């Protein structure tokens, strides 16, 4: 039920020789479509540009991506009142072997997926999460970048089937919390807000960026730092975020229970005000 | 100029929704075809089975892979006197999100690529390698497995263009030698043979396995151990191996020069005898 487009035209397949298939040689963005328009388009384009730079991939012109994105939204059969888009940029077709072909054009794919708002009780009461055993690989070279190498997340997500568990939190091999399989993480202790540093692993989410900036605009510092998983026991509030659902309070991680706290509520209110109405409770 | 097959039939493309494209969710084998037959078929099938187990992927039946492989060799337009085959096993098509769909069948792709023997002088005199800056990610969960997440190797291979450099050696983030971008590494000091331990990163190559076993059969222990990169200075011989070229002496790594030593020669002779005639010098 997804629609994929390339150069504005439907494209359900790609060549097996594409380096995304062979090596995961590429990056992607996951963008919320609300009322027919992409949310945080500028932030996503800036992050995509940064990701391409980090991987030494030629950046597709934003104007062309924008045109193709508009075409995809026009042509899709998915209801774009509330949907999710993915933009994948791959290193394109290559010869066998790790060396990229000189001057091979990158490939940009745009996918539109149906989606629907989460149950309001999840925003009001919070979600249950678990601590995953699968560690995140430590790789400073691509830390923060949403590359197509996502086996860590896949293997972590395979750890549970219980539909009552909304998300799994992941640590690096040294037991530091980094992020969820599909979300970033914030923790609050005595009104001090912190989020894990992403210099060794993890994905630097758009919503994470937005929250840090909104907090700063409201005079609240957010500490980006190492966060040993043992600290979970001392935390008063925990919340997760991503570009699709916005912010969700965590009410339980394993046996540890959390109240939906003041900071979490105020972050949700800030976002709900203009940018992410889903967060209104 | 590659030929790809799926279920024995030509297959130049795969669905964009395949999890290999989206997440690199899969594994692969690279197999030498010599005189029309795959070399080390049994070893490759055993490693593929192990890789699927490590990633919780359903293993395609070996008998079916074998049948499809035969069909690919029959139908390809590539000269299979001397060629390279790739077998890719992906987690198949999935919904959006990291969770695999229950019961989704894996996809097995078989590619046949033209190849040709390396210049005999490389076997006789050795190759130049460099030490890469890009570290290998530390990930015990998939260490040793040839997964489709190969960005580390891609980025390392992007570090040089000099065609005189045959290979790049890679370290983990703690500066321990692990392997080359496309090969495994052996080092010799005072007739003691060692190869890096692959418990945190790296790919456990078929040719590496064969060499360790051949050495053992000849009464020579090979130490699988941590190998800080500083040890390179103290090594007397260095050689690299993979399933395609067999064994190549290293004559230079950066400014350090190595002689083609006795152990290297004898490993090459053992292999050349029956299994890898390319190594005959």
Most extensive chain-chain interface: A-B, 55 and 55 residues
How would a crystallographer describe the biggest sheet of chain A?
Answer: 9 strands, mixed
Overall shape of chain A: globular
Arithmetic mean pLDDT of chain A: 96
Q: In DSSP terms, counting alpha (H) and pi (I) runs of 4 or more, how many helices of chain A?
A: 7
Give helix and strand order of chain A, one letter per element, not per position. Answer: EEEHEEHHEEHEHEEEEHEEEEH
Describe this structure in words.
The structure is a homodimer of 281-residue chains. Chain A is of the alpha+beta class. Chain A has 7 helices and 16 strands. In chain A, strands 8, 9, 10, 11, 12, 13, 14, 15 and 16 form a 9-stranded mixed β-sheet that branches. The longest helix of chain A has 14 residues, at 41-54. Chain A is globular and about 55 Å long. The model of chain A has no long low-confidence stretch (mean pLDDT 96). Chains A and B meet through strand 3, helix 1, strand 6, strand 7 and helix 5 of A and strand 3, helix 1, strand 6, strand 7 and helix 5 of B. Strand 3 (13-15) of chain A pairs antiparallel with strand 3 (13-15) of chain B.
């Amino acid at each position: 039920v997804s629609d994929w487009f390339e150069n504005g035209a439907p494209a359900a397949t790609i060549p097996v020789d594409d380096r995304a298939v062979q090596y995961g040689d590429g990056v992607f963005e996951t963008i919320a479509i609300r009322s027919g328009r992409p949310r945080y388009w500028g932030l996503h384009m800036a992050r995509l540009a940064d990701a391409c730079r980090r991987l030494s991939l030629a950046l597709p012109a934003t104007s062309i991506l924008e045109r193709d994105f508009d075409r995809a939204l026009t042509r899709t059969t998915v209801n774009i009142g509330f949907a999710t888009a993915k933009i994948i940029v791959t290193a394109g077709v290559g010869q066998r072997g790790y060396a990229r072909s000189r001057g091979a054009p990158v490939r940009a794919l745009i996918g539109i997926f149906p989606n629907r708002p989460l149950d309001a009780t999840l925003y009001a009461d919070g979600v249950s999460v678990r601590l995953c055993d699968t560690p995140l690989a430590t790789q400073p070279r691509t830390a923060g970048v949403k590359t197509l190498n996502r086996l860590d997340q896949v293997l972590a997500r395979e750890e549970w089937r219980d539909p009552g568990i909304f998300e799994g939190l992941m640590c690096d091999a040294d037991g530091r919390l980094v992020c969820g399989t599909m979300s970033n993480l914030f923790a609050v202790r005595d009104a001090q807000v912190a989020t894990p540093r992403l210099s060794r692993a993890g994905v630097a989410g758009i919503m994470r960026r937005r929250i840090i900036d909104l907090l700063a605009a409201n005079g609240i510092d957010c500490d980006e730092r190492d966060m040993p998983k043992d600290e979970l026991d001392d935390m008063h509030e925990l919340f997760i975020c991503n570009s699709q659902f916005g912010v969700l309070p965590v009410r339980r991680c394993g046996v540890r229970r959390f109240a939906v706290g003041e900071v979490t509520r105020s972050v949700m209110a800030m976002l709900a005000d203009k940018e992410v109405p889903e967060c209104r409770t």
